[in-house]
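Bug #77: duplicate submission created two jobs. Keeping one. Sequence:
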Amino acid sequence: MNQKKVPWHFLLVLILAGESVFILPFVLSRVFRPTVLEVFDLDNLQLGICFSIYGIVALLSYLFGGPLADKFPPRKLMAVALWMTALGGLIYSLYPTYTILKILYGYWGFTTIFLFWAPMIKATRIWGGSNSQGKAFGFLDGGRGLVGALFGTIGVLIFSLFITSEISEVTISESKAAFKQVILVSSGIVFLVGILVWFFMKLDSKTEKQIILEKITISQVQEVLRLPSVWLLMIIILCAYVGYKITDVFSLYARDVMLYDQVQSAQVGTFLLFIRPVIGILIGIMADRSQITFWLVVGFVISFLGALLFALGLISASATALFFISILVVATGVYAARSLYFAVMERGQIPLVLTGTAVGLISLIGYTPDIFAGPAMGYLLENSPGVEGHQHVFWMLALFSFIGSIAAWYYFRLYRKKNTD
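Kept job's structure:
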């Protein structure tokens, strides 16, 4: 990579955009999961099906959106994606029927992936250059975590401001009115971020020419598919993303097992979001100073050990300190793996100019948890209410973390002696 060094403000806007686009479909339901279930009159399985529909649309969007990212500048695709996603928030704020909600999640599967995902990954590789891929992706994921945490904090603050009753006596109508304000403010911010992307993520003409292809040929797709790193990353990302999806249940665990109220449960979800930037930044810096692929293995091992703490039923309502320590362990492993799995593309000899195409192909398998993880968790939670259902979910995390660690170890062994270009 010989392009001119891209300025820091490019990365800052990229980070802001990278999480903002997912606030409406995912972050709000992660922080306010008990509230979302109540105000939309859903159970865990129904919400999981919404996520599954998102995943099905996203699956096709990854495949066809990837090559698109190799044909157009990242900022244009990303800005349009943010604006379209924000418009969906207006429908969300009207508390549509379950049928409309499923259609909305399908729409978000298109707006957040087809026009956004591959351009975001490509833009991050461009900023990182040859020697700072760990830092680039660590800062991206860590920064996205911080943005998500700030959105979560603002959301909890807005929600609590519009709740006038004692929290134990809040009616559904009062919760709806308060959460509507959270949705509308979030939608407005997402739209404004799109404007920032359009104006502040411009690349110089020389760099832009280096990263854009006139057309994508079959031979180029075949070139990408011949790379062992592409196939290994499909497995690695699939396993890591299951872990990330499972972090959605922590606020629900706080309510069901730790017996917290709605606001306290949302605060647990927000606490989790604040862990993410710290892990992302630290792991990114450490990875660039040593073997980036080794730290990917470490992330999966930590995730596996953390999952066992919950799966073995060691955490009860009285074990508050252990609960937060265990969250910290799981989050460290999950966020470390998530921060690095695209950072190893450079080590795996995937050409920069074909990043979009590679990301599209990798994501076709890697992000299938968007389809099955939500319904799987919903099924486990609904069929074994209380602590038992949560234990089953964390056994699922342990299994995927174990598989991920094996794939990451093979990636490490395969590419550790090869220098990046």
